[in-house]
Amino acid sequence: MPIAPITGRLRKRFWIDVTCAFSLGISTAYAFWHVFLYGVHLKALERQENYYIKLERERAASSS
């Protein structure tokens, strides 16, 4: 009794792999932008800008 050939399995597996890859990639990119950009980078940028504003005010006060 021969075993029936498995047809279409590779094609189905390919689409599952592509779907999972896109889903994981998009969710990782979304997490990166929200955690890194909004959680870390913008806060560090705000601290840096506040420091430079403070320096400018001190320089303006000392030159007046």
UniProtKB/TrEMBL annotation:
One of its GO terms (biological process) is mitochondrial electron transport, cytochrome c to oxygen. CDD domains: CcO_VIIa_fungal (cd22888). The keyword Nuclease does not apply. GO terms for cellular component: mitochondrial inner membrane. It is found in: Mitochondrion inner membrane. Its main location: mitochondrion. It comes from the Eukaryota. Keywords: Membrane, Mitochondrion, Mitochondrion inner membrane, Transmembrane, Transmembrane helix. The chain crosses the membrane at residues 14-33. GO terms for molecular function: cytochrome-c oxidase activity. This is Cytochrome c oxidase polypeptide VIIA. It comes from Amanita thiersii Skay4041. The lineage of its organism: Eukaryota, Fungi, Dikarya, Basidiomycota, Agaricomycotina.
